[in-house]
Amino acid sequence: MARKWYILVRTILFLMLSLAASAQERYILRVPPGQISKVASHYGLTIVSQLTGSGNNLYVVTTPSNTSLLATLSKDPSIQWVEYDQQITLPQKHGYSSDPASGKFLATQDWATFLSPFAWQGYLDQPAATTIGVAAAHKYATGAGTVAFLDTGADYTNPVLMFSLMPGADFTTPSGGSAQEVPNLNQSTTSILDDGSMYQLNQSTTSILDYSGGGGGCDPNFGCDPSQGGLNQSTTSILDQSTTSILDNGTRITNAYGHGTMVAGLIHLVAPSARLMPVKVFGNDGTAQLSTLLNGLYYAIDHGAKVINMSFSMTAASTELENALDAANDRGIVCVAAVGNEGQNMLVYPAAYSEVMGVASTNNQGQRSSFSNWGVIATVAAPGEEVISTYPGNHYAAGWGTSFSTPLVSGAVALLVQTNWWLNQQSAKSTIAGSATPEQGQNVGGELNLVKALGH
Asked: Are 81 and 97 found together in one domain?
């Protein structure tokens, strides 16, 4: 009996401590050099971390339990700025697949040699590539400079990407390190099979591309007709918001693993000669703190990025995020971001900032995707349905969402960089928007046209 009481008391204490910790508020403070200790001591704040590089005058702090100090800190003249360290979640859907038959890895077009002799034909010849004119554009440019992407990292062993990937950085763990995407393995639900097999969640559930049918895929939740082919419907698992798989028994595994490798593959598809800088700011659960994003953004600024891809959005504005984007533009860096997947005329960030090019999604008929946001936030649109890209473990994936439209535009900017190294945010924005294929009342700025953007 005494042991049971002991366990009960410990459990109650643990819950009480957990509730107290959750009641703490987390802020980002901008203070003059040498002042953070004084400010923290005065208000009883706990200093969690200091941002690195050009962001080193920003600090992440937490308040005492059950205390809200935002209004008070905002009035302190010794504090230059304070805001919540808000959490951001990757909102997009994506599916993933097994390898195609080995014989279909070899590319036949001359331009495909810019990518990889091992790239699958369905990736190279997909409708999205045809729509925006990838093959024709490669007659004039194949990309230059470094494209940083703030995401979940990348698979450095992927044969299509491995020679283009730079070391990058990981801001999701205290130890840092490379931005390699690593899955969260759970033996009860996950197994990675041998070569020639597939990455599979829950032995009874598979997600594969119907390669014999020409690739592609379909998510009926995003307004397409699964009866029209694409993914093999009898063996398909469509991935839903921030989940790796919807299992046969209805259980969902929260996991954004592979999102960054897919983004990298789409940048590379358009600009195969550009360098890719993975900056890992989202964990496998698809979430990130604003402070982590800022750390990653300043890293890209400080380490030579010419283009920064941001395949995410958030509904709340952030002064410090805009400050970082200003700093990027001042360095001649072009910033590109997704406009979001709410299917509304609404502002999301960072796409809504003037320092950024906002990207909407279109389907393979050049119409705005039903899920894509629209309005003044959209500079241009690009294909964002059934888009095929690289996936960790030498696999391919079909994706839906403005997450996957955005890297196509970032790749387009890298093509322009090859023709004009002094390209900046304003010139890139006007060139891409001005050359876009006009859309019919969709209010997404027209669809990306690579050949016209290159002046041909």
From this structure: no
**Greater confidence, 215 or 59?**
59
CA angle 164, 429, 256 (to 5 degrees): 50
Residues 138 and 203 in one domain: yes
Model confidence over 119-176: pLDDT tens digits?
Answer: 888 899 999 999 999 999 999 999 999 999 999 999 999 999 999 999 999 999 888 8
Domain count, the chain: 2
Residue 284: predicted pLDDT? 84
Same domain? For 422 and 302 the reply is yes
My answer on whether 108 and 73 are in the same domain is no
Residues 74 and 220 in one domain: no
CATH number of the domain enclosing 29: 3.30.70.80
